[in-house]
Design a protein that fits this description.
homodimer, about 350 residues, alpha+beta, Dna Ligase, domain 1, D-amino Acid Aminotransferase, Chain A, domain 1, 11 helices, globular, Rudment_hybrid_motif (chains A, B), EC 6.3.4.18 (chains A, B), purine biosynthesis (chains A, B)
Chain lengths: ~350, ~350
């Protein structure tokens, strides 16, 4: 499928969280319907979707029926079981493609892929066992961070190693999951590029945002980021290199460490990304619509920013600030319709639009 | 109900067209669900709603079940049958209230209401029959325009009278419907104010837009409008006067003629308005969210504009321009998901964002 899909077509989305929700809204702006596939009941994306299938990823009949009902399939998260993808791709194209998922589902594969492209990453080593961990620590040095190769997000599945004594308990905390050791990168700040690529190979990037994390979760993204003109150019070229190497279709988030020795790739996410939420109030075409445009073979937006924005995540109890935030000038609320404000749970975000002084 | 509704509550929307669709999306941004009531099958709003009821306005059981499933009721069009409102309001509050509907459903009542407030309108006369029409034409003069008192929109239910000879055929064309004769206003251009009022009486207005019509249908809205500072102030004060007089809750569109003798009210619409679509890409809180905020008793956005915008409607065959528009820089597409591009049918709109020169 490289012909553009026409308005009225249906986009299947794997995952019904806030990213699926905002993808669904973006699809509606282009006249498309969406069908959400999500194991959990009452998914946030279901409030704004044409259809919802509630079924586990092991339900092959449900997967096949879902695939048959849509024109193209995309996803909001990278940890989709391989067997489910095998079923789905028999029926409809999956965008972004399998290669992007294969690479980004495994931290070790991802790091090796980036290194092969000539991009800087944190020093890393495969950690099959304690012997390997000791050897890697001796080479990389502490502090370092031990991570599961798969299924980590928002700081989960990670253990810091400050001294050699932390090594054994850190490995034990991962309960035998395949792991990778990553050395610390001495960075001044973090940035990310939200990049998109169309089936025809067209690439467009939004301006890099500067990210601040709290407790391992993104707290704010500020656009523009503190980057020199050449760093900006580097960031875009690096993102384009990654997308082209994967023959990628869709939006990708590329997280970067800004260091005195250049930009270091932290990780890549083959989907719309929290650090791209600012685009909803800063660009005519936001990252969600950009992803949909790529997936349906439409022309990409050029990523042009009309306003500066500071995005702030609303996590857990932050919901008590909503009445106050609703009164704030130039503050755009984006709530996800989740029932329970559990600690660490992303409940929404705000985009503060910085108006140009005229 | 004056306590704010909490995220997770459900907003009932009467009418499933593009306005209901965009209201539903705005509700989702604040964490609300929506339930659409619409007689027609496959309504555009249904693609982005939590629930849809397909039933005629005469189905009292369906109306009652719909009302019982929601926390508050609003609407996207003013011509809701009175009997349906009688059923609905037994269950849940309807916002904006009945008085706004009573006044705006009838051109004669509306004109008299505006005149009573001391606002300028076109000269007008009640036209029960040919005798009244002849007398009114003698007083108001030709050219004039004969309109049905109820159920007119986008230039429908209207007949121009250029000379006295047009009078009889014009009256015949309305097929006995109660009518009003309106004199022509000598205006330089048209503007509109999108105003909002909360249950507590807070009023907020967006900057006036300048409207250009083609074939009786809105073609473009440009913001800012060509208005002097005092005209801008007048426009806002007039809108506030109207909203306060109706004890109004929600967003209203107030259409104005700009004349050398001041601003003349053309008509009012007790709902979000086509001439307010620019706010989607010009403000942190757009007219759809503003309406939802009023309806659920949340604080209103202040109407601040961060960018200048030119909105253009896509009517009928304009859909063939979509691929080209999708390539245009700073152009935000908003398509309504309608299947057939019939002549005169509103298929979508674009907002061209005018970036500030830095």
């Amino acid at each position: 499928m490289t012909d553009p899909l026409q308005p009225g077509a249906t986009i299947g989305i794997l995952g019904g969280g806030q990213l699926g929700r905002m993808l669904s809204v973006a699809a509606s702006r282009l006249g498309f319907k969406t069908h959400i596939f999500e194991p959990g009941a009452n998914p946030p994306a279901g409030d704004v979707a044409h259809m919802v299938t509630t079924a586990p990823y092991e339900d092959e009949a449900a997967l096949a029926a879902f695939a048959a009902s849509v024109d193209v399939i995309t996803y909001e998260f990278e940890n989709i079981p391989t067997a489910a993808l095998d079923v789905l791709e028999q029926h409809r194209p999956i965008r972004p493609g399998r290669e992007a998922l294969r690479v980004s589902q495994d931290r070790l594969t991802e790091k090796a892929f980036l290194q092969d492209l000539g991009l800087q990453t944190a020093p890393f080593a495969d950690i099959p066992d304690q012997v390997a961990l000791d050897a890697a620590l001796a080479e990389i040095g502490a502090p370092a961070i031990l991570k599961t190769r798969r299924f980590g997000y928002d700081g989960k599945g990670q253990a810091r190693i400050m001294t050699a004594e932390d090594a054994a308990p850190a490995l034990a905390s991962l309960a035998g999951a395949p792991a990778i050791l990553e050395g610390f990168v001495n960075f001044t700040h973090e940035a990310s590029v939200i990049a998109a690529r169309s089936p025809s190979g067209e690439v467009a990037c939004f301006d890099p945002g500067e990210n601040v994390h709290r407790d391992g979760i993104l707290h704010t993204t500020t656009v523009p980021a503190r980057l020199s003109q050449s760093q900006r150019m580097d960031a875009v070229l690096m993102a384009a290199k990654i997308l082209n190497a994967l023959d990628y279709v869709g939006v990708m988030g590329v997280e970067l460490f800004v260091t005195p020795k250049g930009l270091v790739v932290n990780e890549i996410a083959p989907r719309v990304h929290n650090s791209g939420h600012w685009t909803q109030n800063g660009c005519a075409v936001d990252q969600f619509e950009q992803h949909i445009r790529a997936v349906v073979s439409w022309p990409l937006g050029d990523g042009q920013r009309h306003s500066d924005v500071v995005m702030e995540n609303l996590i857990g109890d932050d919901v008590i600030r909503i009445p106050e935030l609703a009164r704030e000038r130039d503050c755009a609320l984006h709530l996800y319709g989740k029932a329970d404000a559990k600690p660490g749970r992303k409940m929404g975000h705000i985009n503060r639009v910085i108006r140009a002084q005229k």
